[in-house]
Amino acid sequence: MRIGTGRSLVAGMLVGALAFGAASPSVALAKRxxxxxxxxxxxxxxxxxxxxxxxxxxxxTIAGGKASAGIGAGSAxxxxxxxxxxxxGATFPLTVDCAGLYTQxxxxxxxxxxxxxxxxxxxxxxxxxxxxxxxxxxxxxxWPAGDTNSTDPPLNVQGGRFxxxx
Length: 166
What we know:
The chain is about 15% helix and about 55% strand.
């Protein structure tokens, strides 16, 4: 017996979204989180719900990822960087050298492949603005390959952009 769960699910999500939006209009007006770049020559755009940012004791951290899955296969990519930058009272634009990490994990049938690139420096981040809660900017640079993939070439990051609430 087949039950029309697809329609019920969509209707339930719509009712929930309308009820939540009516209860909290600021959610509908909130700006979207963004984190994207060309990494190793390929476009990377973190999924909105995975993007996080933090600002504590003069350290700004921004991270995000994306994942995809199919029958018998899937992949996940993750980008994170941390910068020693005191954004409160800074003059913008502010450019700093940052540490970071980029990982790729792939699953094909039962084989898992994981690669990582990281470094204590190597990513040039330019903070364009900070209003006390939201930071925007650009980044580029790269890191050497990690221990699990030491024969891979260094990772090149170009045209990175972010807009994140801290």
